[in-house]
Design goal:
Blueprint: E1 3-6, E2 23-26, E3 31-34, E4 44-46, E5 53-54, E6 59-63, E7 70-72, E8 77-84, E9 90-97, H1 116-125, E10 133-135, E11 139-140, E12 150-153, H2 164-168, H3 172-183, E13 190-194, E14 208-213, H4 221-228, E15 237-239, H5 242-254, E16 261-266, E17 274-278, H6 288-291, E18 298-302, E19 309-310, E20 323-328, H7 380-384, H8 393-402, H9 405-411, H10 422-427, H11 434-449
Parallel strand pairs: 1-14, 2-17, 12-13, 12-15, 13-14, 16-20
Antiparallel strand pairs: 3-9, 4-6, 5-8, 6-7, 8-9, 10-11, 10-15, 16-17, 18-19, 18-20
Helix pairs in contact: 3-5, 8-9, 8-11
Length: 450
Amino acid sequence: MSNKIVLKKGLNIPVKGAADLIVSKTVNPGIVAVRPTDFKGLLPRLLVKEGDKVLAGSPVLADKKNADILVASPVSGEVAQIVRGEKRKLLAVLIKADEQQQYLEFPKANPADMEADAVKAAILAAGLWPWIIQRPYGIIANPLDTPRSIFISAFDTAPLAACQEFCWADQMTAIQTAILALGKLTSGSVHVSINDENSSFLKLKGVKFHTFKGKHPAGNVGVQISNIAPVRKEETVWTVSPAGLAAIGKLFAKGRYDVTRKVAVAGPMAIEPSYIQTVPGMPMKELIPFYGTNADIVRIVSGNILSGSNEGTDGYLGYYDSTVSILKEGTEQELFGWIRPIRYKQFSTDHCYFSWLTPWRKYDMDTNIHGGARAFLMNDGYYAKVLPMDIYPLYLTKACLAGDIDKMEKFGIYEVIPEDLATCEFVDPSKNNIQDTIAKGIDLMLKEMA
C-alpha cells in the first residue's frame, strides 16, 4: 500500500522531441572519459597513468579525503590520455576501449546474508559508492555515516527525460538485490517514489512506497524527500538512482562492475529521437546520426534541458545522466520581441501569448533566453508557484548571493540542490542563474560547516 501525495505546484514544459520507447542503437564507444567534475564532493587522486591497462571496474580515481571511495573505469582498455586544465587541475581520464570487454571480477554474494559493514565494503571496493548521494548538499555520501533513511525516485518528470519504467523494468531482479543491500546501511526505511500505480517498481519488497501526482519537479528526489520527511539540520539521508541500484545489484549477483544503461537521445533538433544502449563517459560525437550536419547550430546537453551540462560535440555523457538533449542554439534576434501581439509558436507561463489556449501543444524551444539579466523580482510567490517544497526560494537564493549562512539555513539550504530550483530559473523574468547561485551557496556551506 503506497502513500499518495498530490502536488499542486510545479510546471510541465511542453518541448517537442521526446524519445520513442525503442532502443535504436547500441554504442560501444572507442574512447570513454572518466571525469572528476561529475562527482560533487570528490577531491580526486589519480590512480593510473597514461599507457596503463585497465579492466571494467578497475579503480581510476580515489577521494583524497576518504581513500576507500573509488571511481572505476566503465570499460576495459588502455589509459590514452590524462587531461588537465589550469594549474594542472585534473579534468578527465580518457580510456581507449577494447573491442572485447573484460571485467574485473568481484565476489558474488547475497546481501540478505551479509552484515552492514560487509555490504558497505563490497560497494566501496567495486567503485560503486559514488552512486550513493547524501542530502544535504547532494555530495557523495560519507561511508562512516548511518543515514536516517534512503530515498529512490522511480520516475522523472523533467522535460524530455528518460522513462525510468522503460529503462529499468527488465532490471528488477538486480534492483531488488540492491534494495536488500542498501536496507542494511540505514537505521530507517528505504523509500521508493512512483507516479504510476502499475509501475514495475511496485514488485520491490522491503521498501515503503509513495505515489506522487503532479507536475515537474515532482520526479526530483529532493522534492519527494521534502514532502515525505524533510531533511533538518544535523540529519543525513541518502539517495540512489535506479541506474545506481541496477549497478549495485549486478555487482552482488554477477560479481561485475556493469554500468551499462539505456539513454534517451531527445530534443527538438534530434533526428528520430529514441534510446541508445551505452556507458557513461561516451563521447557526444557518437551521436552524429542524431544531429547530422547540424553540429554548428545545436547545443548538446548531457542531462535534461533544465539542469544538464552543455557538452557540445566534443563533450561526454555524464556519469549520472540518462538523457541527452539536443536543442537549437537561439542566436536569432526577434523583431519587436515580447511586444508582438501574436506569438503562437512561443510558450509562456504567464498567459502573455496564446499558448495557454492550447495546453496540448508541444513547442520547438531553443536556447534563446529572450533578454538579459535585470533587477531581482521581489515577489517570492512567483517562484514558489512552480516549487512544491515548503521553503522560500527567492529568499534562499538571495541569502546564497549574500553568503549569509544563518539565512541560508533558515530558508531551506539543507533541503535543496540546484536542480530542485530549475523550474524557478526557467520562469524567472529577471534571467538570474538561480541554479549556479544555489550551487555556490552549497559550496560555501561545505567550506564553512566542515
